[in-house]
């Protein structure tokens, strides 16, 4: 496995936890697009990953795999590098977030692992022969939920 995959996964997990309701959102404390653009540029310069961390108006990478079912919601972070994709999406409730698991199974993915992270949080990994999809689902304090997708090719 190349070093890019763990780097993108670590970056995605850190940003998603920071932007979720579990921790204070530092981007809410920043004002104006100048600082926000600077944060994106620093991440891109250090990792070589094209990112969007503005918390509003972000979108999935253009190259996001079409055969990975993805929930509709507010994309608050996304990145793509060397065939590995990640996105954090906020949806209306934990039940809606957990629908991502059923959507993957319905699309022919097989669950290969599961991790309970306590009340309102879980993680599962799925694969379909082409893609490994890791999902982290966490309930936010306001009742919404965050879904973190990390998608990479099966090696």
Strand order of the largest sheet: 1-2-3-7-6-5-4
Secondary structural class: alpha+beta
- Level of helix content? 25-40%
The count of domains is: 1
Mean pLDDT: 77
In sequence order, what are the helices and strands, one letter per element? HHHEEEHEEEE
Distance between the termini: 8 Å
Strand percentage lies at 25-35%
Largest sheet: 7 strands, antiparallel
Radius of gyration: 15 Å
Overall geometry comes to globular
Q: What is the total tally of β strands?
A: 7
Q: Please, how many helices?
A: 4
**Can you tell me the residue ranges where pLDDT is under 50 for at least 5 consecutive residues?**
1-8, 15-36
Describe this structure as you would to a colleague:
This protein has 155 residues and is of the alpha+beta class. It has one domain (4-153). Helix content is 32%, strand content 33%. The chain has a 7-stranded antiparallel sheet, with helices on both faces.
